[in-house]
Design a protein that fits this description.
The chain is an alpha/beta fold and 187 residues long. Helix content is 32%, strand content 20%. Strands 2-1-3-4-5-6-7 form a 7-stranded mixed beta sheet.
């Protein structure tokens, strides 16, 4: 799953999950990260982080603000509920948004469920497998071996363009998966 991504600078803005934050972004923002849930009934993405506090803000509405500001930033979608049930419908919506806002090669589609990223990978999107949580500084050698083994098996069965995880996972991910881009974040 070796898909292109128009790369700008490495530092992006995390949790751009509302219009107010989007409106405050500098014009030269390199990339943004949004947390999204796909609503299968409405056939659109809603933007929010916690399922305990849902929002009705659609990704389309958020991207309209992005477009009106004439931003050129990449858009990293942390897809919170990607599943076999919604993968095709969500792909159609991503395609629509990509065309509407001229975002070719600017989306990252991320999910902790790599088996459902395949439809995006096959459709030319840059995908990222959000690896399971493990703090390597608090883990035993056996836990690290199990962690990397799980990732390796998933990547063999379900290729993705990159791996993503917390910043403190970077050394382990880079050591065991040197051929993959590693995407990280920190508060």
């Amino acid at each position: 799953c070796n898909k292109p991504l128009i790369q700008k600078a490495k530092h992006w803005i995390k949790a751009v999950n509302n219009i107010s934050i989007m409106q405050q972004l500098p014009d030269n923002t390199s990339g943004i990260e949004c947390d999204v849930y796909f609503d299968l009934q409405k056939k659109h993405f809603e933007v929010y982080h916690d399922s305990s506090a849902p929002s009705t803000l659609s990704l389309d509405t958020l991207l309209s603000v992005y477009y009106s500001k004439k931003l050129q930033a990449n858009v990293w979608l942390d897809f919170k509920n990607l599943s076999g049930e919604n993968s095709m419908s969500s792909l159609h919506e991503i395609n629509r948004l990509k065309n509407k806002y001229n975002l070719s090669n600017q989306f990252i589609i991320e999910s902790p469920d790599p088996q459902f990223l395949k439809v995006f990978c096959d459709s030319g999107y840059f995908t990222s497998y959000y690896v399971p949580f493990l703090n390597p500084y608090e883990a035993t050698e056996k836990e690290i071996i199990q962690f990397t083994g799980t990732i390796r098996k998933n990547m063999e069965k379900f290729p993705a363009s990159a791996l993503s995880g917390y910043y403190f996972q970077y050394p382990v991910l880079k050591k065991f998966f040197p051929n993959y881009p590693i995407l990280t974040w920190a508060d």
